[in-house]
Amino acid sequence: MPKNEVRIYNSKAVIYQNDYDVWQFRIWLADEDKYFRQSLRTKDKAKAIADAEEMYEDIKYMKRRGKKIYSISIKQAVAMYIEDKAKYVGIDGANGIVEGRLGTIKAHMKHFLEYVHKDAKVKDLGINTLLSYDREGETIDYELFRKRKSIADSTIRNEIASINACMTFLHEHTEALSDISAFKVPKIQSRKYDDSGEEIRRQTFTSEEWQTFYVAMRSYCAKKNNPSIEEYYEKQLARHFLLVMANSGFRNGELRQLKWKNVTVERHVDSKQKPYSLARIRVEAQTSKVRIPRTLYANCGKYIERWQKIQKECGVKTSEEDFVFSVDGSEFSNRRLNHHFNNIMKMTNIAYDRRNDLVIYSLRHMFITNMSLSGASFDSIAHHCGTSIQQIEKVYKHVSDDEKRTFATKRYMNINGNIVAMSDAYGD
Questions:
Q1: How much is the CA Rg of the chain, to the nearest whole Å?
Q2: Angle at the Cα of 37 (from 35 to 41), degrees rounded to 5?
Q3: Domain residue extents for the chain
Q4: 199-408 carries CATH number 3.40.640.10
Q5: Is the distance from CB of 412 to CB of 422 less than 8 angstroms?
Q6: Tens digits of residue pLDDT in 54-80
Q7: How many alpha carbons fall within 13 Å on the CB side of residue 292?
Q8: I need a surface site. Which of 134, 233, 298, 323 has the fewest CB within 10 A?
Q9: What kind and span of H or E run contains 172?
Q10: Residue 203 C-beta-side C-alpha neighbours within 13 Å
């Protein structure tokens, strides 16, 4: 029981001695509905009163600034941040974000929660938390923590940016939930950009690899191999998603958020009167990574039509507001898509050491590479794919160089008024 209680500041706070005669401080925090107690670490009454009065003034100063004495947990704080970001999904303007971006933020914050202690409080975190943190008896930094899981430098930088955005939100909150606005950032060594094009080549399907991949997809999705209608439907969804992506250059997130109201299939005939289908697709600003709407034509109309037919066969009814690729009405998850992609890859004869290089995004690389080699300008490709000309030139510079080298080796001569390609035309 407390003994020798002494009231200070007109009974707004109290000091008392514990069983060891050490003076303690106590104050009721009405806005937080709890007592705050702390040892004054002295047995001297006069010193205890002086220290308690100073502590009282500090607490009142913090309260005037809107700060809480008891900190919420980091898990609670992250949940508050994510809830706030969710308000801006689909909103136009600088603060608006797409659904896919919210998913990325959630993933980044999940990794941060894995890094810090499970029950840690926001106020337990210091400015150097990402540089030095005691985890399970080991002092570690965030960069090393993530690199042990083979995470790329660029991904780690993006995660830290999200983490610090969360800290800024907490610091600027009306209740000032964090004492710091951002953590000090680890100096991650920047990897020099590979302008040789070798990295993009590795991450792009060759025509032979793509052929064995789409042949494997047929077997993977065949009805005879999928007696369950649910399994058949989901595998066909993944198949047609990948086929449309390979023939349109869509980003993964754009295609997963595509709705039927933004897709129209048009039938045309070529110069030989052979019919073909084009898909006219509208990408809304809120689903585009760059927040700019665009309308494009893609040579994937037959896959869209076939997917519609499969939906009808499986008894799936859709409306204009429904996602094109969905199992239950919601956006098809990237995790499930990767699951099917990896299963199909295992059925191909693509070399094992190549399989790690090829991912779903490799289909976009393949589309852009093929369009460039077919003669399309970087300007047209950039508009179609929703990116800048500079980005296309930077990433796919090697494709342009391949074209230039091919042109440089061609030789032409005028023979009787006809332009004839010659293997060589040396003049020595």
A1: 31
A2: 170
A3: 3-64, 74-172, 199-408
A4: no
A5: yes
A6: 889 888 877 776 666 666 788 888 999
A7: 10
A8: 134
A9: helix 153-172
A10: 14
